[in-house]
Every structure is written in structure tokens, then in C-alpha cells.
């Protein structure tokens, strides 16, 4: 019985071994192997030939350290069709694996290379390069020691002449594996989450406002344009806003998107300006767009009027504002050795769009390999960038550099795992607090291609607070304290304060497009200028510590308003959220005083109305030439005579209160309208309640 069972198991193992050998066997694209599928064979051979032409160009570009993703994608388009016809060919699996290694679908490469290496058991059928690309596949899988072994086998099997083009890449990949082993042993305390906004295509270049409530990004997901012959869509710019900790539905920025590729590079910290890049006449340049209300203005001009400033005859792409809005950092392929390097240019005359000649960000940042993205944190001293150089784990890694007192960027520090992987990790963009950031990565386990990931840092809870000083123009000598307590911070402290809110008309509460000027009070120099949004009134300012700032808010026809922030050196991250209400003089301006209350049928002002009326007192004292009408209104219930009388008495009661606060009675008029001027229906409870109101209207100045 036991012998019979053993014999059955042995037979089964022999069958399985034979099946595995059969499927591991290489099948060439020969007519003798496909006697009944000659037409399919002919097409497959044709596809391989076309794919080979693209692959040859792609690998030549890689050896020249140039981007070749377009060639690799085109090669794959033809190779994958041939692979459907015959998936058991060593060379084709090797070529597919080779091509996937340099696309945003790197995670698909390993199965093809593993199949190729398994069919190459005798080390006779395939190119010796199989071990080089298989080693790269192992590196992506996190099998770093196995990858190093395969790299060494590759070197051993290659002739010296054939090895020479691979020499630098061979050394680099060995160093990457060694770096990955070290960095993997010291993971950072962060959470990495794939966000819901991602698609099956490439989603990349996340640009975040400093408060983390606006995310703009680039994607080549299916859109209203036609796909190209390789079934690829053009890149377009999209946005989403944060609502109750969830991103809202994605919307395309239609005013910026064209039928060609459009990509975002950097968002100003207040979310009011955007740096994008476009390709015109086969040359990529950086453009700027401004948010006009709710619409992004089409970029009418390039950054920099003269050549050799921001835009040159080289390609300039992904760009980032610096916190003081004096410089723009950007990528150019005109770097050392024609590599992609990080450069910066300083503004000389903003109104005339004149910028200085581009300068390198320095040897501590740029390498002989490619740099892939750049982002300046609002604290003014921290640069995040991606690079294939330094101590990368493979592909692009994200690094951080800090500026010194002389204005030079210091040594690049790898952000480590799990932020970085052997895949491409790029496009770091952070909230002002530094607690949350967004990156893009084509790592394994995503939704497809490049995906956007949320990075959340751990840390101990550290609640922060700040005293801000609101200084009305009439009382600069006696600032009014306004304390705002922020939520706990769970990250290493950032030395800056974020001041955000809305600029509103004090009477209508409508948004005001105001100019906001930040001054360094000690040096009496302007730190930065920005504008509140004309549609929402929103503004957002990031202020690094170590200075006393004066903040002036002005708009045509309004009174000047100021704030003061004294932020000592070393002060931790704070968030102050506050609306600024500007006073405007306009005859006919009217507002319902919703917080003025009376008992039913009475005309005595209740005490809980005083705070609302005291705001009117302050306004009248600030603007002594104002003449105003206080009017009373009722619903249509009850006697018309009684309603008229009651509304008149209530208006007079408000006037008497203002007079008691030293407002000139000659500037005040009381008028009761009864039910003659409704603003809502009297058929509903809510409508009648809206109609019962006291109004304030400017009738003279």
C-alpha cells in the first residue's frame, strides 16, 4: 500500500517536472514551430522587428543618459502583441523586461525577466545581458543581495569590450543595492497611502497649497482628446479640494489644458499662482498662470522675457516658487554634461517679466545623473528634490537639502524608506507644518503607472498657540490680542507661522480682491506681496520664524488694515486662521443686522444685540462723515398699522442705542417700513422670520 502510494507520487512529480520543462522550453519564431499559424507568425515577426527599432534607439538614449520612456513604450506596444502569439521565447521576454525597466510600469518587468532566465538554464540561448536586466528586476523586488550576485555573473559572462558601455551603470546599480540594504534597515516613521484620486494611468507632480486644502496634479488618464496610435492620452492638469478630510471629485483645469501635453510644476503657497510647462516648437518652457476668481488665466507669457533667464534654447520644465517669491527653481536639460539639473533664477523687474540668468543650485544638489523634481518648503530653508544620483536606492529617490547662512544648499540627505524605494519616487510637496506631504511613485502595488501617495509623519503631540495682533488703523498703539490654538502637531517642528483667512467687505461680507504686503519691520524691507482671491477672498501666508512682520492689507476704496506677527527665532509651527474685514464707503450699501433682537411685540433692544450694534458704533466712529438709515421691517401678520408702528419704534430704539454711544444723531435716520419691503415669502415660517429684520444702509458720506 505504501509502495503503491510512493509510486503514484513519483509518477505525479515526473509529470509535473515534464510539464515545467515543457513550459520552460524556448520556442523560436520559426515556421516549423507554427505550421498552422503562418499569418500570425508573419505579423508577430513584423511586430518584433518594429519593436527592435524602438528598443535600439531607447537603449542608445539610456547609455547617453537621456530620457527614453517614449521609445520604450512604443517598443512595448509591438512586443506585447508578438508575446500574445508566442509567450515562450527567451529573447522576446528579455526585450519586454528590458523595456518595462525604463517605463512607469516597472512593476511588470520581473515576471518576464524571470521567465527568460528560467528558459536560459544552459546559459546558451540568450544574450549575456539577460543577467544585467534580471539583476535590475531583482533590485526592484527588493532582493538586493541576489541582484548583486546577478550583476557579477553578468560582468563575468561579458567580454571586456561589450562590458565597457555597461561599466558605469554596473557600478551604480551595485552601489544602489548597497544603499538600499543600509536604508532598509532604518525605516522612517511615516505612513504611505495610495490616494483615491489615482487612475490606471500616470498621475504625477502633486502640487499642494501650504494649508493642504488644494491639490493640483498632472495625469494622462483618458480624456476628451483622442488617444495616439499607441493608445496613449496626452497629459492634462487636474485639481481637487479637501472637504472633511476627503478629496472632492477631480476636475480638469480647462483653461490651461490644450490638445498637447500640459503639465504642472509648482503651486504658489497660497494657491493663487501656478507654474506649468508646455512644449512649443519642440522646446519645453516654463509658464505662469494666475487664479482670477475661480478661473485660472491661460498663461499669456513665459517666465522671463530675455534668453538665458528662466527659459532658454534648452528644455525647462518642472519649477517651484521660493517662499519670498524672489526666485524660481526649475529643471533644465542644459546642465553639466547636458543632464537634467536644478537651476534657479532671480526676479529683476517683475512688471516687465525680466529675470536673471539661470544658476546651478550647486554641486551638493546636482549630480552627473538626472535630477527629476524640485520643491522649496515654505520655511525658506528646506529644498526637497529627486535625483538618480547621491545614495539612491534605485531610479529616482527623494532627497532633502538645507540652506546655510551663506545661501548655499547643503549635502543631500536621502529621505529613506518607505518614502523611497528601488522604483522612481519623485515630486515631494508638503503642507507648511511638514506633517503631511504628497509624492508620486511608480512602485509596486499602485493603481497603475505613476501614482500619488500621501506621506504622513509620526511624532509626539505638541499643541501650539500664537498671539496675533490685530491693529486697526485708528488704534495702532493699542493692539487687540487674538489668540488662536492649532491642532496638535505630530512631526518635528517647523519654524514658521501660517496665517490664513479671507478678506471680506465688512458690510456685505463679500470677498475683496486686496493687496497684502509683508514687511520685515527690523530691516524695513518688503518680504513678499500677494493678493487675496477675487472670488473667495481667501489668502494664505507662510512666515518663517526669527522676524517681526508687519502685514498691510489694502484695496481701492477701503480703509487700510494691518496685522503684526512677532515670531521669535526657533518658534514652532503655528496656524492662525482669521478673516479680515475691510471697510468700504458706498452709498446704498445695505446689510441685515441678523443679530439685533427684540421680544415679541416689543421695541426694547435686547442685551444680546449689543455686540452687533457695537460693531456699528466702531464703524461710525471710524467714518464720522457717514450718514445712515436704520430701518425696521416686519412680516405681514397682524395689523398693518401696528406693524408700521412697531417697525418704526424698533428702528428708533437702534438709533437711540447708537446715540448713547456718542454717535451724532444728525448722522442717523430711523424709518419703519412695516411689511412693505419683504425679502422673502410670508407664506412660510422661515420666510416670515427673514422678513422680520433691522437693516443698516449708507445714505450719505
Structural account:
The N and C termini lie far apart (112 Å). This protein is α+β, with helices and mostly antiparallel strands and 701 residues long. Helix 2 (38-63) packs antiparallel against helix 3 (69-85). The chain folds into 4 domains: 24-184, Alpha Horseshoe (Serine Threonine Protein Phosphatase 5, Tetratricopeptide repeat), CATH 1.25.40.10; 190-457, 6 Propeller (Neuraminidase), CATH 2.120.10; 465-582, Immunoglobulin-like (Sandwich), CATH 2.60.40; 590-700, OmpA-like domain (60s Ribosomal Protein L30, Chain: A), CATH 3.30.1330. The model is unreliable at 1-23 and 461-492 (pLDDT under 50). Helices cover 25% and strands 30% of the residues.
Q: Could you name the key traits of this structure?
A:
701 residues, alpha+beta, Serine Threonine Protein Phosphatase 5, Tetratricopeptide repeat, Immunoglobulin-like, five-stranded antiparallel β-sheet, elongated, disordered N terminus
Amino acid at each position: 500500500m505504501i509502495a503503491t502510494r510512493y509510486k503514484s507520487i513519483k509518477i505525479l512529480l515526473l509529470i509535473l517536472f515534464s510539464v515545467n520543462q515543457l513550459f520552460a522550453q524556448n520556442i523560436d519564431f520559426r515556421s516549423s514551430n507554427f505550421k498552422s499559424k503562418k499569418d500570425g507568425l508573419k505579423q508577430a515577426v513584423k511586430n518584433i522587428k518594429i519593436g527592435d527599432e524602438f528598443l535600439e534607439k531607447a537603449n542608445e538614449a539610456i547609455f547617453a543618459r537621456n530620457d527614453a520612456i517614449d521609445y520604450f513604450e512604443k517598443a512595448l506596444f509591438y512586443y506585447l502583441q508578438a508575446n500574445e502569439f508566442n509567450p515562450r521565447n527567451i529573447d522576446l521576454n528579455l526585450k519586454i523586461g528590458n523595456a518595462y525597466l525604463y517605463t512607469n510600469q516597472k512593476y511588470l518587468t520581473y515576471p518576464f525577466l524571470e521567465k527568460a532566465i528560467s528558459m536560459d538554464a544552459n546559459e546558451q540561448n540568450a544574450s549575456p545581458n539577460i543577467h544585467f536586466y534580471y539583476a535590475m528586476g531583482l533590485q526592484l523586488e527588493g532582493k538586493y543581495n541576489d541582484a548583486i550576485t546577478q550583476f557579477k555573473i553578468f560582468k563575468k559572462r561579458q567580454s571586456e569590450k561589450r562590458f565597457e558601455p555597461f561599466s558605469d551603470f554596473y557600478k551604480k546599480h551595485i552601489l544602489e543595492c548597497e544603499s538600499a540594504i543600509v536604508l532598509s534597515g532604518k525605516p522612517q516613521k511615516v505612513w504611505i497611502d495610495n490616494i483615491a484620486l489615482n487612475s490606471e494611468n500616470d498621475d504625477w507632480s502633486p502640487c499642494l497649497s501650504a494649508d493642504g486644502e488644494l491639490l493640483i496634479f498632472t495625469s494622462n488618464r483618458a480624456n476628451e482628446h483622442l488617444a495616439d496610435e499607441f493608445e496613449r492620452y496626452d497629459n492634462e492638469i487636474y485639481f481637487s479640494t479637501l472637504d472633511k478630510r476627503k478629496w472632492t471629485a477631480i476636475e480638469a483645469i480647462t483653461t490651461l489644458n490644450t490638445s498637447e501635453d500640459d503639465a504642472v510644476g509648482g503651486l504658489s503657497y497660497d494657491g493663487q499662482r501656478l507654474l506649468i510647462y508646455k512644449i512649443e516648437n519642440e522646446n519645453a518652457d516654463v509658464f505662469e498662470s494666475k487664479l482670477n476668481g475661480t478661473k485660472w488665466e491661460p498663461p499669456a507669457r513665459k517666465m522671463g522675457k530675455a534668453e538665458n533667464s528662466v527659459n532658454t534654447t534648452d528644455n525647462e520644465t518642472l519649477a517651484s516658487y521660493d517662499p519670498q517669491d524672489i526666485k524660481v527653481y526649475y529643471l533644465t536639460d542644459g546642465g553639466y554634461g547636458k543632464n537634467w539639473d536644478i537651476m534657479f533664477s532671480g526676479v529683476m523687474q517683475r512688471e516687465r517679466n525680466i529675470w536673471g540668468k539661470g544658476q546651478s543650485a550647486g554641486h551638493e544638489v546636482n549630480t552627473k545623473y538626472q535630477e527629476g523634481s524640485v520643491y522649496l518648503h515654505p520655511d525658506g530653508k528646506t529644498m526637497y528634490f529627486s535625483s538618480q544620483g547621491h545614495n539612491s536606492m534605485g531610479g529616482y529617490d527623494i532627497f532633502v537639502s538645507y540652506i546655510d547662512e551663506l545661501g548655499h544648499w547643503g549635502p543631500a540627505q536621502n529621505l529613506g524608506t518607505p518614502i523611497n524605494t528601488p522604483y522612481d519616487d519623485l515630486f515631494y510637496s508638503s503642507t507648511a507644518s511638514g506633517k503631511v506631504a504628497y509624492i508620486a511613485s511608480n512602485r509596486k502595488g499602485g493603481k497603475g503607472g505613476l501614482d500619488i501617495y500621501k506621506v504622513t509623519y509620526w511624532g509626539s503631540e505638541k499643541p501650539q498657540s500664537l498671539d496675533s495682533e490685530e491693529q486697526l488703523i485708528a488704534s495702532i498703539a493699542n493692539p487687540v490680542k487674538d489668540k488662536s490654538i492649532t491642532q496638535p502637531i505630530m512631526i518635528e517642528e517647523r519654524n514658521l507661522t501660517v496665517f490664513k483667512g479671507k478678506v471680506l467687505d465688512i458690510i456685505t461680507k463679500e470677498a475683496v480682491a486686496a493687496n497684502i504686503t509683508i514687511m520685515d519691520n527690523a530691516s524695513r524691507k518688503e518680504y513678499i506681496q500677494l493678493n487675496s482671491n477675487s472670488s473667495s477672498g481667501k489668502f494664505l501666508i507662510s512666515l518663517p520664524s526669527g522676524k517681526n512682520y508687519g502685514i498691510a492689507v489694502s484695496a481701492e476704496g477701503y480703509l487700510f488694515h494691518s496685522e503684526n506677527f512677532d515670531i521669535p527665532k526657533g518658534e514652532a509651527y503655528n496656524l492662525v486662521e482669521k478673516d479680515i474685514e475691510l471697510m468700504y464707503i458706498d452709498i446704498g450699501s445695505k446689510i441685515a443686522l441678523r443679530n439685533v433682537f427684540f421680544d415679541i411685540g416689543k421695541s426694547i433692544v435686547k442685551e444680546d444685540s449689543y455686540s452687533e450694534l457695537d460693531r456699528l458704533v466702531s464703524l461710525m466712529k471710524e467714518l464720522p462723515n457717514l450718514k445712515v438709515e436704520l430701518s425696521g421691517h416686519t412680516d405681514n401678520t397682524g395689523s398693518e398699522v401696528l406693524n408700521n408702528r412697531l417697525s418704526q419704534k424698533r428702528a428708533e430704539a437702534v438709533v437711540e442705542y447708537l446715540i448713547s454711544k456718542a454717535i451724532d444723531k444728525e448722522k442717523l435716520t430711523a424709518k419703519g417700513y412695516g411689511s412693505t419691503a419683504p425679502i422673502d415669502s410670508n407664506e412660510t415660517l422661515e420666510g416670515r422670520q427673514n422678513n422680520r429684520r433691522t437693516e443698516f444702509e449708507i445714505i450719505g458720506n
